């Protein structure tokens, strides 16, 4: 019996086979277990020799089982290590670097261009009170501009007596916040996210604007025109470009103008600064006295201009991106195609 089991254990090929051997010998109905049960029927004389012999056999089988089990585990590990060995001298595999999103790229370009003209960067919250988003900008409660803007309003819990808040519909509330914080004179741009409930090929519920604000003692529309010309030339990388100021209306500027840039569309390709087409790129005007007053700036002493421009739109124009919605799809192929390397 001993020779049989020592042999079986030595030849067990894996843990499952080994377990089978164990059950065959030491399991409830195992050969050794049955023999041990027979001890009861033996005479005391017989039992004296058979008992210790069987116990010794049982111990020996158990020891052989554990030794074989350890040997099998070692062999399995060796096998795995052979398969998974690592050549640390191999050159590293290339990892794909991410790219700069076109919106971030354009924001960086804008910031650099306006920094050269003395504009600092200002920021405001994306969730703002309707006072900053509307009232302070001379848009009172009944004003149609509120309805036109497809505003997202924040829910208020019962008993919450904070003023109503909105997702800002434009970057213009940053005009108020930066004048409150800094007073006049001031020269800032404020790039950032804005929100309107609108969705089609040219509208997404979240998009980006950059606000511009320059307030001093004698700033005029002429300064606005120069700053915008310099901006358009630098941004579109052209030596010369005509700008067209079209009379318009915004509650927070007076007078107001929408600004078009000269361009051509040869074969569907936009060229800025040549041809005789016009492309609207921004709204602007002289900051309304009410707006200055809301922000604690005295309109008898200070005046200046403001403008607001869609960043997504000028990014599409410069980099030939056809569909606005693709900006926000997070499609890696699109991002690799239109993204900028760091
Ligand atoms: N806030 C305006 C808009 O969102 C743009 C604008 C900004 C116009 C500043 C005039 C002055 O359309």
From TrEMBL:
GO biological process, one term: phenylalanyl-tRNA aminoacylation
Database matches in PROSITE patterns: AA_TRNA_LIGASE_II
Top class in the EC scheme: ligase
Pfam families documented for this protein: Phe_tRNA-synt_N, tRNA-synt_2d
Cofactor annotation remark: Binds 2 magnesium ions per tetramer.
SUPFAM superfamilies hit by this protein: Class II aaRS and biotin synthetases, tRNA-binding arm
Cofactor: Mg(2+)
Top-rank taxon, per record: Bacteria
GO cellular component, as recorded: cytoplasm
EC number: 6.1.1.20
HAMAP family in the record: Phe_tRNA_synth_alpha1
Protein name as annotated: Phenylalanine--tRNA ligase alpha subunit
């Amino acid at each position: 019996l001993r020779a049989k089991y020592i042999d079986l254990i030595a030849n067990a090929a894996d843990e499952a086979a080994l377990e089978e051997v164990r059950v065959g010998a030491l399991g409830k109905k195992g050969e050794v277990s049955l023999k041990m049960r027979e001890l009861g029927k033996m005479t005391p004389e017989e039992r004296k020799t058979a008992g210790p012999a069987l116990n010794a056999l049982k111990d020996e089988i158990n020891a052989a089982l554990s030794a074989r089990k350890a040997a099998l585990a070692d062999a399995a590990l060796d096998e795995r290590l052979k398969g998974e060995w690592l050549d640390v001298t191999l050159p590293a595999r290339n990892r794909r670097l991410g790219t700069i999103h076109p919106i971030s790229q354009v924001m960086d370009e804008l910031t650099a261009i306006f920094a050269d003209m003395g504009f600092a960067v200002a920021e405001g919250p994306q969730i703002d009170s309707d006072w900053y988003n509307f009232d302070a900008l001379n848009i009172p409660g009944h004003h149609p501009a509120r309805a036109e803007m497809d505003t997202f309003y924040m829910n208020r819990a019962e008993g919450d007596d904070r003023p109503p808040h909105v997702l800002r519909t434009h970057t213009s509330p940053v005009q108020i916040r930066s004048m409150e914080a800094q007073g006049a004179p001031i020269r800032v741009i404020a790039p950032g996210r804005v929100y309107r409930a609108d969705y089609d090929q040219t509208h997404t519920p979240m998009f980006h604007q950059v606000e511009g604000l320059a307030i001093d003692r004698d700033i005029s529309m002429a300064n606005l025109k120069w700053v915008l010309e310099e901006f358009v030339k630098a941004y579109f990388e052209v030596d010369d470009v005509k700008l067209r100021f079209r009379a318009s209306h915004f509650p927070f500027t007076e007078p107001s103008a929408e600004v078009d840039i000269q361009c051509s569309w040869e074969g569907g390709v936009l060229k800025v600064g040549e041809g005789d087409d016009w492309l609207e790129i921004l709204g602007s005007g002289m900051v309304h006295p009410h707006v200055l007053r809301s922000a604690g700036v005295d309109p008898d002493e200070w005046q200046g201009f403001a403008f607001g421009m869609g960043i997504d739109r000028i990014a599409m124009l410069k980099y030939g991106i056809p569909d606005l919605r693709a900006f926000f799809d997070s499609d890696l192929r699109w991002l690799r195609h239109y993204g900028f390397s760091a």
